[in-house]
Each structure stands twice: as structure tokens, then as C-alpha cells.
Amino acid sequence: MVVGKENGVPEHNILVIDDEVFVRELLEEYFDRLDYDVKTVGSGEDGIAAVRQSRFGVVLVDLKMPGKDGIETLREIRKIDPLCLAIIMTGYPTIDSSIEALRAGAYDYVIKPFKLSELREVVDRAAGEYKFKAEVERIQRNIQTVEGELRDYRSARTTPVICHAVPSPPKTARYIQSQLRELEQLHDAGYLSNGEYEEKVRELRSKDVEKKR
Amino acid sequence: MLRAGRRRMQQWMGNLPMDRRRHLLIVDDELLIRDLLYDHFSGCDYDITLADNGQSAMARIAVEEFDTVILDLKMPDMDGLELASAIKEKRPAMPIIIITGYPSVESAVEALRRRYCDYFVKPFNMKKLEKAVSAAIQEVEQTSGRGEGERRA
User: Which residue from B129, B136, B149 is spatially nearest to B44, judged by alpha carbons?
Assistant: First the structure.
């Protein structure tokens, strides 16, 4: 299953926002070698502009920067693109900033100095989750389209007008079955925890029951 | 006291539809904190269940429906984070709000990673906690209500 191909696979686009040049260079080189597309910027303002321009699956933000700090930048980025996952990096971890990061919806909070392999694990996980989130959104959009079709079909059937071309009924039950199968694949591939999987399946099933009524 | 409670209730009504009373589970081993939270949230028209340890909280979760859980990190029988993940396993969509007298970067980052709703350090501002609770419930109801509205239409 290839996800997000049409948008140039955004889960492989990483944005690094750090005011220190050597951190930017290090991360750019490292993740570039791991087949990620890396863009680096030196301030929160530039980071926000970059997110406005193109889609990033994962954003790495330094906490302490002149101008807009990491938390503020993160808040604005998530306002622009709620799907993207932001990781806070800091050399000065504090309870307050970690709580603020939680409230701002950060994906992770990594403390400098870190091993690059550890950061890679976090970024890989984030990219995987982004891929999954994008996939779920796509499925939900499809479900909404089918529901819309079903509504159109029903209203076309009940409206007493002469209608030459009655739209054919959408294959809702079969469609939901196929979505269930896709979810199962995602679950088997490890993108979904057991709980999340069950939740989604329950949601889909309840839709199925509604349709049968 | 009553008037103040009503005013608070009206503020709260602005955020959440008043079609039913929301049910909170409050887990803390300190009687004083439980009392305080009970007094405050019952004044805001919530139904409240109190638990003083992790086991009784889990027993309640098993049989009752809750809209949000507020839990203390440090309890004698069970670690708060342990309890939170046990709750999440049973009810993946349940918003969890952590309150603690012993904050640490580690536990806050853990809460962040597990996507808990909020983390409050004692002593905390009751109004802010109340806002966090209603925001958490609102978010859950909006995400689950999206499909429902579609179905009803």
C-alpha cells in the first residue's frame, strides 16, 4: 500500500528548525543519508513559512531560539498543518516546557545531547504514524463520499419527480468490508495499536449496521 | 456559594451542550484533594465518582461509563502512569488528565508521548483544570460526533 504518493510522500519530508548551524548541518546530513528529504531553517518564523509552502510529515524544533521559541513555533505549525508531527529538541529540559509541549500537541520531547540513532528511532516512528494518520484521513474521506452518494440516492428515490436516470445504489456494505480489510492490514503492519484498531473497526461496523436499517 | 456555582455552570455551558451530565472519575489517595475536586466539579454540574486507589479505579472503569479521568501520579498501590495505561487499554478514547505533587520531566514527557490530555502540578488553578476537563470532553465528543451527525442526516 503506497500512501501519499500523489503529494510526494510527505511522511518522508523532514523540516529541521534550529538556530545552531552545526545542529542543522548534522541533522541534514544524517537524515539525508537515510533517504529522508530534509529542509533546514534557522528560526521559528522561517519554519512557519516553510510549512505554509509545502507539506512536512515530521518537524524537528529546537526549544530555545531567539525570536519565536520552539513551543510557539510548534503551535503555529500545528495550526497550519494539524496532521504534521512535531518533535521538540532541547538542551535545557524543564518540567514547565515539557508540560507546555504536551499542551501544544508535540509528538515527542528529546533531550540534547542525544544519540543520532535514538533520534532516528523517534523520527521513523513519527513518519510511520504520519503515514497511518494520512491513510485514516483518506479512508474517512472515502466513507464520507460514499455516505454522500447514499444520501443522494435516497433523496432521488423518495422525491416524486419523473427521473429517467436513477443513480445506482453505492455498494456500501462491500465498501465497508474493503475498508475493514485495509485497517486489518495496517494493524498487522504495526501502524495501529490493538486499542486503536478495535475502535476503528467498531466505528466502521456501527456504520454498517446503520446502513442495513 | 450556590450562586457562584451557577455562574460557573453557565460558563461551562458555553463550551459543552447541556444534553446530559458528564461523568468524571477522580483518582487520588489524598482525602483532601478528593474533597476539593468533588466540591468544585459538583458545583459545575458534573457527576463524580471518587476512587482512592488504582484498583478501585479500575473496578469502576470496568463497569461504568466516564467522560474523563483525573488521576494522581503517586498512589500507594499503583503508579499513576501504570493506572493510566491500564485505563487506555480498556478505553482507548478516554481523556486522561494527570495531577501530581511530584512533577518530573520524565513523567511529563511520558504523558506527552502517550497523548494524555494534560498534566497539572499541585498546587494548581482549579479554573484551569476545569477548562482542561471541558476541552478534553469537547474534543472527544466532536471527533466521535462527526460520524454520528452524518448518520443522522
Answer: B129
